Amino acid sequence: MSLEVASRLDKQMLIDGEWVDADDRTDVSYPYDGSTVGSVPVASAEQVNEAIEAADRAYQESTLSAYERYELLTAAADRLEERADEVANVVTSEQGKPLSESRTEVDRAVQTLRLSGEEAKRMFGEYVPMDGQKGFAKDHCFTQREPLGVVAAITPFNFPLNLMVHKVGPALAAGNAVVGKPASNTPLSSIVLFECLAEAAEEVDAPDGLVNVVTGSGSTVGDAILDHEAVEAISFTGSTDVGKYLANNSGMKELTLELGGNDPTIVWDDTDIEQAAEQLVGGACSNAGQVCNSVERVLVHETVEEELVDALVDAAESLTVGDPTDDETDVASMVDDDQFQTVVDLFEATVEQGATVEYGGNYGGDLGERVFEPTVLSGVTPEMPAASEEVFGPLVPVIPVSDFDEAIEEANNTNYGLEAGLFTQDIDRGKRAADEIDAGGVNINTVSGFRADHMPYGGFKDSGVGKEGIKYALDHFSREKLVGFHQGFNA
Ligand code: NAP
To answer: Is the CB of 245 under 6 A from ligand 1?
Structure first.
């Protein structure tokens, strides 16, 4: 069954418990045909300050226990689940991914909210055995975790719903107040999320202002967040350039950065090539390749290169390309002209430098606006743009390597270090890859694009600092206090 894209949604921002407008508004477009599907306010710096101050006040006033925070997040999950079909439509309308993928994203967001609710009840401290040091045998110390205050959550366009939940879920679970800022081209599904959170907050008698969402220019909102001393933590997912700007200007604020990647997946000669190829094409083309840990480089043992390329072509051929609202569609449009043109340029430059197009290579035109066909490239060398840069598009560049030393060296031949994959039946190779690949996650027998929402997730090098994954995010959004009981005078 095909669904229609959402009818026009003109949304407002949530500041201090009120849905409010701004002097300016900006349109949101449906990437597949460029039509306007909604609009949101463009917040002024003053409005961002109001949201932060409301959050700060609400944080000070809030008396929600861990159980009540669990109830809040569970109630928000229930509401989102009730609106699942509507929200999946909104995600496709603003982002252009196939409806089947939007449904998966909504389902994951519901689970991420539920997992966050559960984690609210697990903010453990620990007993510190003081007698481990000479002279402290009479002292009893333990730690307790406490919230930070106001957490700002800034998200990108590619998973507009679930990435916002990854920040506000654990932040609220830990007892903080939040100010969300979604990407300007995909703000609508985040606002629906905040509608669910606001209703759930009211249900548990949380103070107004515990949850806020502002929309508008990244630099205006970002600078207001950086400048305001009440913001204790910034959780950012997006490009490495903006991440570095935040890192350079955030002073003493807690900062989590989930940034770009150029993830390698190694295919060794002892694996099932056909099954590996299916996963590789899926991992490179899901969300039209607009995934931070997608398969960006395939490093294959040269003896099985030809066999792998043939299998990749078969797998790419089997994908249906086009209209995101068609249930059969696997690969649809990219989010906007900039993303699309960047992929076109990287592809054309790579072919100009000698890579061979084994499958695909068509874009736009009859395929649909901003649609790029799944494209398998062979004869790729590490210096070519499709291999050396982050490509946010459905390209599968295949790079042959002659031995495992070279595979590891090439895997690490990037400034990024988000995730990596390796297909092999050899446990020793798996162990070596795990030890020697410099990335936040190394996945044996699957692709780099593997992610479950409760696992620790976050890159090394230019891919960021800190981890998401509910429990791990919650650690960033809370701080540890030491409490000591010492020998009293009456004992
Ligand atoms: P982006 O351009 O960096 O935007 C991300 C967010 O930052 C948007 O909300 C944007 O607002 C905001 N922003 C822009 N300038 C800012 C500033 N000066 N201060 C504060 N915020 C600012 O990234 P994108 O193009 O949306 O997303 C693609 C990138 O995200 C890719 O590099 C991808 O690898 C990365 N990503 C990483 C992960 C991960 O978990 N590691 C996950 C998904 C995506 P506006 O939209 O209003 O400009």
So the answer is: yes
